[in-house]
Amino acid sequence: MERQKGWLTSGAFAALCGTTKETLRHYKDIGLLSPAYQGDNGYFYYDVEQFYDFYAISIFRQTGTPLEEVRRCLQGQDAAQTLALLQEQRCRLEAERQKLAHMDFVLSSALRNLEFGPVTDMVPQTAWFEAEHLLALPAEELEGLMAPTASENEMLIAVLERCQELCGRYGIQTDFQLGAIHQPEEQGGPGAISHLYTRIKEKADFPYYMEKPAGHYLYLCCRGRWDISEGYAALKRDILEQGLKITGNFYACDLAGFILNSVEKNAASMISVRRLDGPAASR
Are residues 147 and 57 in the same domain? Predict the structure, then answer.
């Protein structure tokens, strides 16, 4: 590293800080970070201790702090002002962290759903499913939010508005991909819809929380159709013909999601129910 009388040249200081001479020149021009010394040769030199000034500037810049505000903070050397600025930036970082966590949850959910792509259409299979956390809206409550003659679009509006309201009230995050919960009928198949649901990121303590428990699930994928009534019938038939023991609710969810489901040929849904009779191999 090039040095002269213990000082660092602008090139050497830029290398130490992981930046460019152009950035240092800009910071000098606006009075944010000036070289510590100018030699007789007209060259500017930096003190190694100024590394920490540059590091502080970098941290503030990464949190979105305007350069003028950074300059006032560094030049003022006021502890109270610095504390207030750090607290403000900490709040910004926390908000950004939550936003990124939500984006990761939504994208991970979409990837997991689309990875069911190779599964054969309308063929019941068995697999282990991890537990899922749900925001579950009772069907009776939703019926009270809309007119009896409401169209499908009007019903969707009511459901999404209710999800938005509950997410805001309880501070939860969802991917807004809707599914239906069916109570089992006596004959072994799915009965009436008891809830509409959407997945949430984690377990939460609020009145609409429901867990889809982990376990071995009998499931069936329906592809290329929005009407999945044939899927319900095929799953029920398989349960009866194979004499399978099932427990709990039936779950129907959209796999194509907000990315692909606007075209019917891309539509993909899955119906699943938990098995009681052990981890049978996929058939």
Answer: no
Q: What are the backbone angles phi and psi of residue 62, rounded to the nearest 5°?
A: -70, -20
> In sequence order, what DSSP letters do the residues of 130-149 get, joined into one string?
--EEEEEEEHHHHHTTS-TT
**Cα dihedral sign for 153, 156, 162, 164?**
negative
Work out the burial of residue 29: count CB atoms within 10 Å of its CB; fewer than 13 is exposed, 13-18 middle, 19 or more buried. exposed
Between the CA of residue 46 and those of 14, 30, 60, what are the distances in Å? 10, 16, 21
| pTM for this prediction | 0.70
148 plus 233 within the same structural domain: yes
Beta-bridge mates of residue 215: 129
Strand 7-9 and strand 44-46: the pairing is antiparallel
pLDDT of the residue at 5: 59
236 pLDDT exceeds 90? yes
Q: What are phi and psi of 160, to 5 degrees?
A: -65, -40
Q: How far apart are CA 221 and CA 271, in angstroms?
A: 7
pLDDT single digits (tens) 17-73: 999 999 999 999 998 999 998 888 888 899 999 999 999 899 888 888 888 888 888
Same domain, 42 and 135: no
Q: Is the predicted pLDDT of residue 227 greater than 70, yes or no?
A: yes
Q: Name residue, tokens 């697999």.
A: 127
Question: Is 16 in the same domain as 145?
Answer: no
Q: What is the pLDDT of residue 282?
A: 43
Length in residues, the chain: 283
pLDDT given at position 1: 44
Q: How many domains does the chain divide into?
A: 2
CB atoms closer than 10 angstroms to residue 191: 13
